[in-house]
Each structure stands twice: as C-alpha cells, then as structure tokens.
Write a structure and sequence with these properties.
Layout lengths: L16 E6 L7 H17 L4 E6 L6 H6 L2 E6 L2 E6 L4 H19 L5 E5 L28 H16 L4 E4 L18 H14 L4 E8 L15 H10 L2 E6 L3 H4 L13 E3 L6 E3 L5 H14 L15 E2 L3 H4 L5 H4 L1 H8 L5
Helix pairs in contact: 1-3, 3-4, 4-5, 8-11
Length: 344
C-alpha cells in the first residue's frame, strides 16, 4: 500500500495542527487514503506534534460511492457538485466500511492523533454543520426522522472506528440558508447528535468546535447564529471539550469580528477574496484577539446577553502564529489570551 496525497512535514503549530483532506483525495482507494493520513501523522509525530483530523465529505465523496447512492446536486456558491443523500443505505455502507475497515485500523494508537472530526455528506463545505440549501428543494425524508437518524448512525460509525474523541463543528444549524424561514432551519438535529454522542459514549469521547468563533454570532436573540445557543449552553454545562476556530485570522482580518453589539475592530470593505479591512487606528488585531478569546474562555464579554462559554482549546490560523508577524507572537496580550487554553 502507498500514500497518494501530499505529505507535509513543515507544521509549526505549537499546540497542534489541523490535518484536512477531502474524502476523495485518493479516489476510491481507501487504503491509499489511510496511508496518506498515516504518513502525514508520522511527519507530525517526528516533530513532536499532534493533530486533529478532518475528512471533508459534502461534494468530496469518491466517484464509486456517488455511482451507487441516490444523489443531490449541491449548488451553493463555490460548492457545486453531487453528494449522496445521508440516509442512503449504500452511502452509509460505503462510509462504514471506509471508517471501520480501513481508516480506523490504520490510525489506531497513533501518537500524533488526538481527535477526529465527524463529517457527513450534508455539509456545504464538507466539514461544518451548515447545509445552505432551501429545505423544500432537498429530497423529502423517506420517513419522519430519517435525517436525524442518519446523523446518529454516522456518529456511531466514527465512534466505533476510532480510539480518540470525535469532534463535530457546532456553530451552525442545518438548512440555514440566509433568509430562510426559521421554521425550516434544523437546529434540533445537531442538538440531538450531541446528546446521542454524550449519552452513548460519554462526555470524554465527544467534543464540539465553532469554526465561526466570534462573539458577534451569539451576542443575543438578534445575532445570526443565536439559534445554536441551546447546544452551546448544554455542552458548556457538561464540561465537554470545546474548540474555537475563529471566523477569520486576527492579524489581517480583525474587522470580521466587528459588530455594534460587541466592538469595532475595523470595517470590512468588499466581498470575497478581494475584501479588505479598513482599520480603526488602534491595535485592532490585538483587541479582537483578547476580546474574542476572553469571551470564549468565559472570562469576559462585550455584551451582557452573549452566550456564556467555557471553551477549552483554540485552532489558530497560520497567519496569527507566523513568526515575527502573527499577532499571537507579536502581542504579549494576545499571546497570554491564547496561552490560557494551553493543554498538556
């Protein structure tokens, strides 16, 4: 068996790396995918590092899977392609075999692997909980509760396959298309998924992460993602592992944390890759870092109505950790805010 994908040996994240791959990076060859992951984990271990693994699903499924399952054509911004319906029996069989027969055994007891992200086919970008599709344009469930049941079944596959905690991105709801009727947005499935994993496998075997980590999304009832609050509050009360991948990097994108309810860190001008931040004149990067991580830690808040969290770890952007330039290393205040989450 041989690896098929790129092997990176230049990881420089002090607290660990996020190892990201598409599920189809090796096409239909799950053994090659497993060996590609192992080779990258070996490179990380050689540097005394550790990593979280995320395998993007969504439109990143092997062609042979798509040929056997009932598909849906996703058309959401830059994410366009076919995906399997999550309740499709062939999809679940292929995924279960990939995880249980190939990836799990190959990665068992690897010293660099500290957690694996749960992913499922109905994720816009293949990794985050959001599925930005109008609910009435998606095929109807074959029976009531089939969507939720598919999430629980896939979680069971992950928990059974791997000997490390399973984490899922929890900063969004399903069918959360901008402007969607609130009645069509499914926040119950992620909450049920969390409870199922916690109750079935124990709090130490499950974690959640916010890949849109910024106080502005949860400052109160008018905030855009406040509908996720019940899950976040329950996970905080349970004391489970909770990670923060900020909505942008602090160093160059501080304005992405701005909101009248929480603070002014600059103004975003433009859309997409060409957008830029117009600074306030102060140290926007440092302020965004200190305020955001203080909120995530549960130590401070910029709004009295923000959800109260007790986060436990941070996925820092490489722009923030870059020697001599990143705000994590050039600002003692930001460095201290990050170090609050330093783990063993």
């Amino acid at each position: 068996m041989s690896a098929c994908g790129q092997i990176k040996d230049d990881w420089n994240a002090a607290d660990g790396s996020l190892l990201r791959m598409a599920f189809d990076v090796c096409g239909d060859d799950m053994d090659a995918l497993a060996q590609t992951i192992v080779a990258n984990l070996d490179a990380i271990a050689a540097r005394d590092g550790r990593a979280l693994l995320v395998l993007h699903q969504g439109i990143n499924l092997p062609e042979s899977w798509l040929a056997q399952c009932e598909t849906f054509a996703l058309d959401s911004g830059s994410f366009q392609g076919d995906l399997c319906l999550p309740w499709d029996a062939d999809y679940q069989q292929q995924l279960g075999q990939a995880l249980g027969d190939h990836l799990g055994p190959a990665l068992a007891d690897h010293p660099a692997l500290v957690g694996v992200y749960f992913t499922i086919t109905t994720m816009t970008n293949g990794a985050e909980m959001h599925f930005r599709v109008a609910r009435d344009s998606f095929p109807p469930e074959p029976e009531d509760g089939a969507l939720t049941a598919s999430y629980l079944a896939v979680m069971d596959m992950y928990e059974d396959a791997f000997d490390v905690p399973i984490v899922f991105e929890a900063g969004h709801c399903i069918f959360d298309l901008p402007g969607a009727d609130p009645a069509d947005v499914d926040c119950e499935t992620p909450l049920t998924l969390y409870r199922h994993a916690r109750d079935s496998y124990g709090p130490a075997s499950v974690g959640i992460a916010l890949w849109n980590c910024a106080e502005r999304f949860w400052h109160g009832p008018t905030a855009s993602e406040d509908h996720v609050r019940p899950l976040l509050e329950e996970a905080t009360a349970d004391g489970v592992s909770m990670g923060c991948q900020t909505v942008g990097n602090f160093t160059n994108q501080a304005c992405r944390f701005s909101d009248p309810a929480v603070g002014d860190y600059g103004t975003l001008m433009g859309i997409g890759p060409a957008s830029t931040c117009v600074p306030t004149g102060g140290n926007d990067a440092e302020a965004a870092c200190v305020d955001t991580l203080g909120w995530f830690a549960g130590a401070s808040s910029q709004s009295a109505t923000s959800v109260v969290l007790e986060g436990t770890w941070v996925e820092s952007w490489s722009a923030d950790t870059q020697p001599g330039m990143g705000i994590n290393v050039t600002s003692p205040a930001c460095e201290a805010a990050v170090n609050h989450f330093e783990g063993p």
